[in-house]
């Protein structure tokens, strides 16, 4: 049911969002001050309503997902970010680095319906350039048709350093090895204050933007993210969104925005709370309203929790991410969501909130809409996935990485 514009306006006025419904209806761009007012407003239902208007104008009743496989190929990392529970030094208990062969074998055994492999990991400078090319080649050798979405900007930065070549040449090599697109991630929150305090060894906003710009100009699509719920202020969140929007105006290379809710367990910030459900929903809605030039907003169910991800589909989000498999970064940090979901389960979650499931590929081309019931083949896809392969301990490193330790 649509609320009459004057009712909406009166409510917006009470919520400190004076004039915003009519400005949005006219397609006007929100200002950073508007975004701050949205973050500060406690009328979550109104935020949801406004964001849903934009979401439905762009995507109607469809809720996208894909069939994907996650491979966190190594947890070796030298960035030591306070927010991360995943990182290890190679000799630490639980440290691993997958060989290209293991990645190949894991993909051979993985869900045959998967259209994407999502590979992100820690960074360890002693891993040779060749290793990154080899893992892309291994993925494509196992599954020639699969879309390889890999490497956050932080990983790309390290790959470029290891290569000792210009960024453009590295991107050519990665593409030739099988890389198709890149995820969001690594941006954290673009505040120099927060970076100095919590992740001083990680690149700052300027380098992140420089790499994203170069990557988009090279013809790759990427996603964009914001990690929220640490010690950043609302103003810093808005500034982060402003920088993303500005870059998107320039390149158009971002496909989807994924607000990442901070999971504190087993991190250096475990005294902080996990953002509340209203806070997680507000982040989705503000993202949808402010980033008017980014086509999609993803409610990453692994990280948001299933009920909040479902509700987010009515408050600005149009995508749930995918079936996933063996995600480690969030589960190490206390996420209590399952390791994976079947297509049948995703369809059910989407239908429970009155949306129509639409399977997409990584570039958001719709492969199938499921307007009615699911055909038999989808129920077959609900079979449990095989267990993950064992991953390498520091002692049995990949051939290309054997020199490190
Ligand atoms: O950059 C790490 C975040 C990111 C924690 O593009 C944490 O489709 C919360 O980028 N609590 C990596 N967040 C994951 C990522 C991603 C995930 C899903 C989909 C896509 C996509 C990209 O995860 C990191 C960091 O910002 N992160 N630790 C934590 N404790």
Could you walk me through the main structural features you see in this protein, from its secondary elements to its overall organization?
With 405 residues, this protein is an alpha/beta fold. Helix content is 42%, strand content 12%. The protein is built from 17 helices and eleven strands. It has a four-stranded mixed sheet with strand order 9-1-10-11.
Layout of strands and helices, then pairs:
Blueprint: H1 5-14, H2 20-25, H3 32-40, H4 44-59, E1 62-66, E2 68-71, H5 100-109, E3 116-119, H6 129-142, E4 147-150, H7 153-163, H8 167-177, E5 179-181, H9 192-198, H10 205-217, E6 222-228, H11 234-251, E7 254-261, H12 277-290, E8 296-297, H13 301-304, H14 306-312, E9 319-322, H15 329-332, H16 343-352, E10 356-360, E11 366-369, H17 376-380
Parallel strand pairs: 1-9, 1-10, 2-3, 3-4, 4-5, 6-7, 7-8
Antiparallel strand pairs: 10-11
Offer a quick outline of the entry.
This protein is of the alpha/beta class and 405 residues long. It contains 17 helices and eleven strands. The strands form three sheets. Strands 9-1-10-11 form a four-stranded mixed beta sheet. Strands 2-3-4-5 form a four-stranded parallel beta sheet.
- Sheet of most strands: 4 strands, mixed
Strand order across the biggest sheet?
Answer: 9-1-10-11
Query: Quaternary state, please?
Result: single chain
What are the secondary-structure elements, in order, as H or E? HHHHEEHEHEHHEHHEHEHEHHEHHEEH
Helix coverage percent: 40-55%
- As a whole number of angstroms, the C-alpha radius of gyration is 21 Å
Span from first to last CA?
61 Å
Task: Count up the helices.
Answer: 17
- Number of β-strand runs: 11
Category by helix and strand content: alpha/beta
Bound molecules: ligand V47
Report the sheet-strand fraction: 5-15%
**Unreliable sequence segments:** 379-405
Averaged pLDDT: 91
Overall geometry comes to: globular
